[in-house]
Amino acid sequence: MSDLETDRRMAELERLLNDPEVRLDPHRVWALLAEIRLRLTVPRGVQPA
User: Fold this and answer.
1) ∠ CA(27), CA(32), CA(35), 5° rounding?
2) Whether 23 contacts 46, CB under 8 Å
3) How far is CA 22 from the centre of its chain?
4) CA distances from 35 to 2, 7, 9, 47 (A)
5) How far is residue 25's CA from residue 39's CA, in Å, rounded to a whole number?
6) Cα–Cα distance between 33 and 9 in angstroms, integer?
7) How far is it, in rounded angstroms, from Cα 49 to Cα 10?
8) pLDDT of residue 49
9) What is the pLDDT of residue 7?
10) 40, 7 in Cβ contact below 8 A?
């Protein structure tokens, strides 16, 4: 995942959590958090299993 993709996911997560006009989707929130966590903890160039 590139920095741009990470930024997009972070923006979507922020919108889901903070925009009162957007319906909260807990499954999407957890999926975004998992993707972001994976991106931030796996070194660049390493493919997760």
Assistant:
1) 125
2) no
3) 16
4) 12, 11, 8, 13
5) 21
6) 9
7) 23
8) 61
9) 93
10) no
- AA letter at 30: W
pLDDT tens per residue, range 1-49: 688 999 999 999 999 999 999 999 999 999 999 999 988 887 666 666 6
For position 40, what pLDDT does the model report?
84
**Which helix H or strand E contains 17, and what residues bound it?**
helix 3-18
Q: Say how many Å lie between the first and final Cα of the chain, rounded.
A: 14
Neighbours of 32 (CB within 10 A): 19
Residue 22 tokens read as 């957007």
Please tell me the total number of residues recorded for the chain in this structure.
49
